Amino acid sequence: METRRTLLVDAFADEPLSGNVAGVVPDAAGLSDDRMGRIAAEIGASETAFLFDAADADDRLRYFTPSTEVDLCGHATIATYGALFAEGAIDAGERTLRTNVGDLDITVDDDGTVWMRQNPPTVDVIDLDSEGESDLDADRLGDALGIDPAALRDVGADLPVAVASTGLPWLVVPVNFLERLGEAEPDMAAIEAISEAHDAAGVYAFTFDAIGAESTLHGRAFAPALGIPEDPVTGMASGAVGAYLREVGAFDGDFPDELRFEQGHFVDRPGHVRVRIDGDAVRVGGRTVVSMDGDLRVPADDDDDEIIEA
Description:
single chain, Diaminopimelate Epimerase, Chain A, domain 1, disordered C terminus
């Protein structure tokens, strides 16, 4: 029976046990899909990244939840490169990452901040007053989130609801005040139904009424359709929301060179994501902390338990 080095890495975090935890297997050579799935289930993080060599790229990553493979995961990508840089396995600079959805540009700064370039953004605004096919209004959305619908209508004239994506679509919902956002008690079945109706991974609700003076906004991400009731700090959603803010003209004057999104405080995993947008180039960045480094015993494929058939 072999062992595989396995890490738990907190992404978008400045200290352990904050931000969004990901599993990382820094040498996944020779692992079958079945064994990767079983390792991810054993680790129990929302996603575990498995690192391979790549013929025409610097690295290859595959991502597994405890139940299935997913094509891309922002925080697990940031976690992997932050951990590799921290132990001296890679230098600061640019790298090309191969994923199931194509090649992505990764940049590691000298201070260990990892930047991930996401796909060109798309933003589709939803008219909540429409009687069209969306069948979505402030009352239904507020009830699903457990937020007074008035908190959505209060900002709806200037900041519409929209589906935004930089590779993974999110339903973006503005809320007037942090107090209202903090009171949210989502109906997960309703959130899942709304997400599926709009082909979104989940709902990202945000307010400009942030906790930190340096923060652009405070966000909460609910993705029950992915098996994640509330995601602590969400890299893919942050890029999409940054693109949304530019598309709807959320700022007077020039668009900021960098945005800072805080998230995770209501699930005791505070962290923040940095977002930069230049044309179609959307980049999200953050720091990482390795919270656990050990070896996991992994049975060979032919050591699997026998399946008893009736």
